[in-house]
Amino acid sequence: IEIGRAVGDGSSVINGTGLVNTSGLVGLWHFNNESAFGDNDSLVRDWSVLENPERISSLHNNGTPTNGASYNLTNKVFGAASMNFDGSDDYVSLGTDKYQIQPPLTISAWFKTRTMSIPSGTTNDAIFATRGMRLGMFIDVSGKTLCLRHYGSGDSTCTNSILSTNTWYHGVVGITSGGNSFFYINGVKDSKVTTGLTTLSYV
């Protein structure tokens, strides 16, 4: 199931609009490079406004490919494309605004890494991050784990499961209303739980 769009997938994938609870959804990026909907080399369309009735009158949280981030039309899981990053300085910018995001919250993404090495002086490779990594989903390349960065606790928490290179994963990280972390990899819940993650700074 894909939410909002099932383009480029054939008949085996269905559009999940109306089948998936989208309440609270604030960002949904398909990376399909659909020019009819505004996608191009300088814009990644946010679909959350269309899929979450709570945001029907809100602005789109569109992204801007930066420093060489580009659509990949062949190496993908679902849809018509994916987004390709060089592992050095590529990213999709969502602007500089701060959003008051508090638990409960969830971040999910399909991702694949070609290597577990990044530039000298760093130890993680971000999949999604707010400014200053106040909140983020990333890969710890030294431990080869999926991690959640939580600024309020001043630390990160990572899965017990180990990741491999050149493998597509669907990763989910989040914090419950009670302040407990949770992780899912390819639909399987990871055993790692960290408690006390109840307060976030503006992210």
Describe the model.
By secondary structure, the chain is mainly beta. It has one helix at residues 48-51, and strands spanning 64-66, 70-72, 82-84, 91-93, 105-111, 124-129, 135-140, 145-150, 155-158, 169-175, 181-185, 188-189. The strands form 4 sheets. It has a 4-stranded antiparallel β-sheet with strand order 5-10-11-12, with no helix packed on it. It has a 4-stranded antiparallel β-sheet with strand order 6-7-8-9, with no helix packed on it. Strands 1-4 form a two-stranded antiparallel ribbon. A hairpin with a 5-residue loop joins β10 and β11 (181-185). It starts with 47 loop residues before the first helix and ends in a 14-residue tail after the last strand. The mean pLDDT is 81.
Count of beta strands:
12
Strand content: 25-35%
CA-atom Rg in angstroms: 17 Å
Order of helices and strands: HEEEEEEEEEEEE
First and last CA, distance? 30 Å
Percent range for helical residues?
under 10%
Indicate the structural class. mainly beta
